[in-house]
Amino acid sequence: MRTLKQCVKAGWLTGMLLMLMVRPVGAEFTAPEQASIAHLQAAIHWATESYYPREIVNRMTNSTTRPKIASAVELHQKALRATTEALGALLGADIQSAAFRRLSIVERAQYVELARQKLDRAIAFYGYAQGGVQALRLYTKDSTLLDALTRWEKHILGFAKAELQQVNKTLSYTDPYPASVQARSGGVFTVIGPHGDYDAAQWQLWRGQHYQLDAMEYLTTAYKAQATSFGTEGRALLQSMLGAIRLTTDNMLSLAGVSNSGQDPFFRTLAVLRALTTQDQGGLPKIYAFFLEFEYEPWAADMKSESSTYGYWTRAARSRMADAWQHTDQGAWMLMIFPDCSVLTNPQGCGGL
Question: Does 11 fall in a domain?
Answer without folding.
Answer: no
